[in-house]
Amino acid sequence: MQLDILPTDTFKQFKIRRGFFRLNGSSIVPGGVNFCIYSAGATSCELVLFKDRAPKPFAIIPYPENYRVGNVFAMIVLDLDYENIEYGFRIDGKYDKTTGDIYDRRKIILDPYAKMVSGRNEWGKLPDKDNIFQYRSKVVISDFELDSDLPQKTDHGDLIIYETHLRGFTRHEASKVKHPGTYAGFIEKIPYLKELGINAVEFLPIFEFDENEDVINDTIRYDSKGNRLLNYWGYNPISFFAPKAGYAASGKYSMQNYEFKNLIKELHKNNIKVILDVVFNHTAEGDERGPYISFKGIDNKAYYILGPNGEYYNFSGCGNTLNCNNPIVRQMILNCLRHWTAEYHIDGFRFDLASILGRNQDGSPMSNPPLLELLTFDPLLNNTILIAEAWDAGGLYQVGTFPAYGKWSEWNGHYRDDVRHFLKGDLGFAQAIVNRITGSEDIYNPSNRGNYASINFITCHDGFTLWDLFSYNEKHNEENGWNNTDGANDNISWNCGVEGETTDPEILTLRRKMVRNAATILFCSIGIPMLLAGDEFCNSQFGNNNAYCQDNETSWLNWNQLQENHDMFLFFKQLIAFRKEHPLFRRASEGTPKNYPAVSLHGINPWQFDSSHGNRVVCIMLTGKTEDGRDDFIYIAINAHWENHRINLPSLPHDTPWQLIINTEFDDKAFIKPQNRPKIYQQNTLNARSVSVYNAII
């Protein structure tokens, strides 16, 4: 196709022409830049151009009437120094809150399709509240070479996911990286991830957000130690297409796109997939009290779910709800995911409060949501991992019933809760714990959900860390500034006898054993395991179960703990390796041993499972084939009781003995070395509050 780039009009000193209406946002074309934006209710639109970080625009160019087709404005401005400009739009139209029309020509609006955003280029730097254009769109040159970055070949069922906050992973001085808290700093820790054995990193939000949101609302908050409280987690998106500049060592030079792409490329070189936590349920614009940033000033009625009088429905708990099944918003979300997949080679997405994606434009749940169907069957996203947090803040809970079309996986909230209940000794969870370990088929029918619908997790960013789960009975969120009213009240946790930090050796020993119990169950369960960063070396948040605002040592990983708890790290490393060695955990083996089912339930005695309310001892046998075709037997015995129990193990073919591989009773020797593994023919002691794992390969 040959492009005609000759100007047809002039505005002051600028040569312009009618643009390309199907190129959303800003696009470099021969000789200039195409600026395209949709707005249904606009009566006029202006392009506002700034020099980099200049307080005032150097040009405001109105779109001529014939530069509009339908509800789309498109204009090419020629001979622009596009590497050194920032741009936005001013849109005029009706203003009537009761109808949801709130156009305001005085506001300079961020391009919703901007591939780079400036204005928050350095993390935590206080913004200038008098700046008339807080969040500035940038024109992006796509010249970073990713052709040699091949798609990762790890099968979906082989995933071992590591959830982490990009900044917090290396921000602590103990990380000893050159650029702490950045994409570049994360690269330096890839050898650590490789050694641990994970093969997928799930980043908390890296879309552009504003950690200084309270400053814009005239509030600067501090904790009792003088730490400024920020929007640390980032679940408050400003722009869906732009990586966070404040996470880049080179962000102040507008190089964040390159730095993030380089991180992805290096992770892929080490066979580690990249999954992004994406927030398509709300934006940072909030409700009627919130700022104009982008969507409010472009088409408030299209982008947000509104009530009959123009009020914002709040199914997200964050002030507004994105109108995901409006065709305009639906197309933007699809284009966004295509952008990250094609331009950045992202491998998958975890959708925050994903049930909102299935709500209709009036807020009601849909049985066949167009957006979810569109994402599932889009050809560009065909090999992409799609993970739903299958609930929202409006009370919709869809774990097991999320519209999955045979492709979506889900964060399994039942897994988290049932494992926690059983481990702490709560009664009535014997049947639940075996259901969770054996693939949650009571929730996910393998015939229509496949084998990998369940993302198994015990901890995640939201809630206690694994160490805190066994160190605190109650949340301790006082430093968040809400009088300890924020965060979940029921954590299904147990402090092992003392609340919080202690020097009591018996309690510390018990806590370490409980961490090993949880880890063993997680990595010996059918489904996809997800590990919270730092759990492998007993990271603590000091009882804070909602550290969303804690950009300090509460949230940062303290790498000194890796040395202090190196034996725990080794235990996690060995567990991950053990899981990889046995395809039966992943339902990846073909066939089972003769006369033995793939899954069987047991108790104190083999083949006699006790599902009664008072039972605290469960045993599970999994069978399958090794990679070289031999019969593989694994026996998982869990005692949540505070007393030892004598158990009898099932007999194996040819009177083959079991080998005891793991006994969490032992502190630094829980994963038993091959030469020290005892052979068990029938009976063995199952220690109090412990997990044992036996194996036989025939």
From TrEMBL:
<feature type="domain" description="Glycosyl hydrolase family 13 catalytic">
    <location>
        <begin position="163"/>
        <end position="579"/>
    </location>
</feature>
<dbReference type="InterPro" id="IPR013780">
    <property type="entry name" value="Glyco_hydro_b"/>
</dbReference>
<comment type="similarity">
    <text>Belongs to the glycosyl hydrolase 13 family.</text>
</comment>
<dbReference type="InterPro" id="IPR017853">
    <property type="entry name" value="GH"/>
</dbReference>
<dbReference type="InterPro" id="IPR013783">
    <property type="entry name" value="Ig-like_fold"/>
</dbReference>
<protein>
    <submittedName>
        <fullName>Glycogen debranching enzyme GlgX</fullName>
    </submittedName>
</protein>
<dbReference type="InterPro" id="IPR014756">
    <property type="entry name" value="Ig_E-set"/>
</dbReference>
<dbReference type="InterPro" id="IPR006047">
    <property type="entry name" value="GH13_cat_dom"/>
</dbReference>
<dbReference type="Pfam" id="PF02922">
    <property type="entry name" value="CBM_48"/>
</dbReference>
<dbReference type="Pfam" id="PF00128">
    <property type="entry name" value="Alpha-amylase"/>
</dbReference>
<dbReference type="InterPro" id="IPR004193">
    <property type="entry name" value="Glyco_hydro_13_N"/>
</dbReference>
